[in-house]
Design a protein that fits this description.
3-stranded antiparallel beta sheet, Rossmann fold, 8 strands, about 15% strand, about 230 residues, alpha/beta
């Protein structure tokens, strides 16, 4: 079984996908963490993010895997929390836009998918490019303002919401207009608007679609925002 979640940055994909994977006892794959890991490695090695050839070569050579904790490892070394730094966030859209980079990383993602009996995967092209054959596809969205608010709360940067909002809008522009594998909703993906919804309600909606025994819809219990 492959359950794939797409959507823009900050729509809640990672949080929801992790919860769904836990409920169904499936492997969770954070594709965005792999691109962040590659970007971090490029910066640490002094590569110019605008040097496409160098970034593509690194993408082919770099080992990107996941530990038992579900967190990305870069050539065997822990990637968290460094892959979440502001510098990586500002650079990852540039590095991940190169066709050769995406081809290399997508190949690694598919290898992971083939190595496990079941997968919940999230990213920005998982339903259209990485796993177009996924049995279940969902496209999560939220307003830019709501996504900026969530990211600020997650990173303890409530005084920088405006800055985060500008970055999210910049990333949306880059992700939706890149020449190779742009962010878009697959025709057979179910659209879920996560604005003003808690994690539990979105998770339960997905589980109801998948058919988990006992999943009957939105949870009545409050939880932190998606």
């Amino acid at each position: 079984m492959i359950i794939a979640l797409d959507g823009p940055a900050g729509a809640g994909k990672s949080t929801v996908a992790r919860a769904v994977a836990d409920r169904l006892n499936l492997t969770f794959l954070d594709t965005g963490a792999m691109y962040r890991g590659l970007t971090l490695a490029a910066l640490q090695r002094g590569l110019d993010p605008l040097d496409e050839a160098a970034c593509v070569q690194l993408a082919n050579e770099l080992e990107l895997s996941f530990g038992e904790d579900g967190l990305v490892r870069i050539d065997g070394q822990a990637g968290e929390p460094d892959i979440r730094s502001a510098t990586v966030t500002l650079t990852v859209s540039t590095v991940s836009a190169y066709r050769g980079v995406r081809d290399a990383v997508v190949s690694k993602q598919r290898e992971i998918g083939l190595s496990v009996p079941g997968l919940v995967v999230e990213g920005r092209d998982t339903t259209t490019v990485v796993f177009p054959e996924a049995e279940y596809k969902f496209f999560l969205v939220a307003s830019p303002t709501e996504r900026a608010r969530r990211r600020a709360a997650q990173e303890d940067r409530e005084d920088e919401v405006d800055m985060i909002l500008r970055d999210i809008e910049r990333r949306d522009q880059l992700d939706t207009t890149r020449a190779h594998a742009p962010l878009r909703q697959a025709e057979d993906a179910i659209l879920i608007d996560t604005d003003s919804r808690n994690i539990d309600s979105v998770v339960e909606e997905i589980l109801a679609c998948v058919g988990e025994p006992g999943a009957t819809g939105s949870s009545d219990e409050a939880s932190a925002g998606v």
